[in-house]
Specification:
Rossmann fold; 35% helix; 5-stranded mixed beta sheet; BirA Bifunctional Protein, domain 2; disordered C terminus; 19 strands; homodimer; alpha+beta
């Protein structure tokens, strides 16, 4: 293994970066479980035919082939999943007889997309999803719940302020219909490009590709530029003078989500009528999330309501979900130097070794500390104490323990203070027990190590 | 998505099974961190050329292809990793400049092998690995450490008793050389089949394929049948009358591991001289682990010492590691009904909803409970209370909370006891806070649901 090849788009962290990734995943899991979501994992592969339904044919899916396959390959037609929603829909159909509905699940796993890597976009990345799925029906209040849970999670992370932008497919579709669009999906696809190509190009495309009149196109653009922190968007939409039943329904739903979420988490969401979401299986509320000051890397948490992603012909399973882009978020925190990790190792204590014959005594100290939940390691070599202290210092281990038949002692190598100690009772201060992640302002950040 | 296809070899658990899998992973992580191992994750893919070194050409690797790839595919030649050791070796080489040695890491991830599925063998499965890697040198005591840590982990899991079987490559190779073998790897490969094909076939193959004399073959078979709970194996090996320097070194090392581990964890390991391990990169101690009563499913934790898996030409990185087969273990626990899960949902409390207009009051109760770390959910529908209690009962949620302007109350739906309660102070008993996993004897087990 002489040559090592760095693979673009497949991020890997050093141990201190992994501390940050683990913190994000642990926090997600804790918040999801506090809200009653059960954890599941689905296999990494799905039949291609299922993944490529719903207009997803342009997804860059990785297809599998067995290296040793001869003749008919039973694994032909399998691909790595590109999100956690399609596998979850399949899981619900496969196991419906064993699940209780509405079924609330979270899922924290890697997904793969063969896309061109760029900041915030990877070929392999971790997502943390929650979804609620009902059998045949799903109450609207879950569309409020998704944003409340994601907001609670984001508030617990050591990250810049984030705001969830909410829109509603019924509102958009009804409006597009109301201005005379025959292909509302085409309008949506064009509007989705607004951030990238700008207003002028969008106006042109709405006429050329979506078949709108110039006036209709202008109104769709006006709609996309409405953004309010509360339900006042409704009056702005109505002022555009478009009438449609579905539009009215969408306005009511969006107002209920924005007001419902902000009542419980003030300022957590805004109504933003340019939010489109590329995937065409959404049918109601849609979510995207901006990390303030880092909008250019794209949404860090997205999702929406889908009425018919999963159906076995007899029954349908409507759902709503939202997904945190764990890798995208962690890559911003590490790449922009927004966090500081106290140490890359779990050990709070290095137990020194006096000489190799006395290693069992040091192992016993370590066992005693571990039995009380204190992470520690025994020095790998009975070097001079100065060298063992340097070993601890290089790893950021705050305490060095010196076994001594005349009485043990422990040294805080930051302050130099050394005190008598008993492995059966001593404990480090709470803040030193585990590695910690501290937010830092970008100005004072150190060079991030990817 | 009308038809759903079950994929053999890609196991998935229902939420209660996932509680078991999560417990195993959490326990592994906690024990590994207590022993000072840092967590890392490596990407799921590696260049094929690196994975297929070291005689691994017969591995059933899954190769990737981009569905939309045209012309030269930059991802051609990538495969899914089939273990976590080869990726770790590559990680060490790639990041050596940023790591401190000896470097102790754990890694809990999925791996993929395109093998024929059978009990205990999967195409996708999770492993939990620890390794210690040094730069140029690695002290022998880490070969004791691996078995101590794995034994500590196994002791914390709700599983049948397990015993780690240890052997030593130097011992085996020295012995084979001592009986005249010119290709010791060939002898090892034949001995590795002993459990599957039996003594007679092994004797024949040792002569026909490994070129031994019938007498030499018999001695190798005698060696493989030595198994002792302590270092008394040494006398039994010497009684076979084979002399070799490497053999002596191997005997000393194996005795040191068996005595060293058992001094700290009595009965944790046995010397078992038939343990070969298929992978040919091992150079010293090798480990396998039997789950007593379930030996037929194969080793649940395996590993060994390797001197030269990772090298960049200038420096080498010798290491030793051991890997817990998480999916194999969980599949035994679930498939044989060896554990009972208290409930499949995290919620300890269902907060009832009096009517839909009063939902915010129920949400407030839930928020208060969650702020004190109590997982709960709000009833999805303002049904009659009897129906809401049934909802909780179906999920195994032990408590139902009734908000009431005149004073809230909470009901233990198992006993029927209902008491006045305050969301700012009430807490469930500790044993009801989280789902629990209890070992059960196979006789009283329920039908397992995969």
């Amino acid at each position: 293994m002489a040559r090592v090849q760095k693979l673009s788009g497949f991020p890997e962290w050093l141990p201190d970066g992994q501390v940050v990734q683990q913190l994000v995943e642990d926090t997600a899991r804790r918040v999801f479980e506090l809200h009653g979501f059960s954890g599941i994992e689905t296999r990494a592969v799905e039949p291609l035919e299922q993944m490529l339904r719903k207009g997803e044919i342009d997804k860059e899916v990785y297809v599998l082939r067995r290296l040793q396959a001869e003749g008919e390959d039973p694994d032909a037609g399998l691909g790595l999943h590109f999100d956690l929603t399609v596998p979850f829909a399949r899981y619900v159909l496969e196991h419906a007889g064993h699940l209780d509905f509405p079924f609330k699940r979270y899922q924290i796993q890697k997904v793969w997309r063969g896309e061109r890597p760029q900041e915030g976009r990877f070929r392999e990345f971790t997502q943390a999803d929650i979804d609620v799925v009902g059998r045949d029906v799903l109450s609207f209040h879950h569309e409020v719940e998704m944003a409340v849970v994601m907001s609670a999670l984001l508030a617990e992370l050591p990250i810049p302020a984030a705001v969830i932008q909410v829109n509603n497919r019924k509102l958009a579709e009804g409006f597009y219909r109301g201005v005379g669009a025959s292909d509302t999906a085409a309008v949506l696809r064009v509007i989705d490009k607004l951030d990238k190509v700008g207003a002028e190009v969008v106006l042109r495309l709405l006429v050329e590709e979506a078949g709108l009149t110039p006036e209709g196109a202008q109104r769709c653009l006006d709609l996309a530029q409405i953004r309010t922190p509360d339900s006042s968007f409704a009056a702005e939409v109505r002022a555009l003078g478009v009438a449609d039943e579905l539009l009215d329904e969408g306005i009511d739903e969006l107002a209920a989500v924005v007001d419902g979420v902000n009542a419980r988490r003030p300022g957590a969401v805004v109504a933003d009528l340019r939010i489109a979401r590329g995937l065409d299986y959404y049918t109601g509320t849609v979510y995207e999330t901006q990390l303030l000051g880092y909008e250019s890397v794209g949404s860090i948490a997205s999702g929406g309501r889908y009425d018919s992603l999963a159906s076995d012909g007899r029954q349908t399973f409507p759902g709503v979900g939202i997904s945190l882009g764990v890798t995208r978020l962690v890559s911003i925190l590490l790449g922009r130097g927004l966090v500081e990790v106290s140490r890359p190792v779990p050990s709070a204590v290095l137990v020194a070794v006096v000489d190799e014959d006395a290693r069992p005594a040091s192992e016993q100290v370590a066992a005693d500390l571990r039995s009380r939940g204190i992470a520690c390691e025994v020095a790998p070599k009975a070097d001079k104490f100065g060298k063992q202290i340097k070993y601890a210092d290089r790893r950021g281990i705050p305490f060095v323990w010196f076994p001594d038949p005349a009485g043990d002692s422990v040294k805080d190598i930051r302050s130099g203070e050394q005190v008598p100690s008993d492995a059966a009772s001593w404990a480090p201060p709470t803040e030193d027990r585990h590695p910690t992640v501290r937010p830092v302002s970008p100005d004072t950040s150190q060079e991030a190590r990817p």
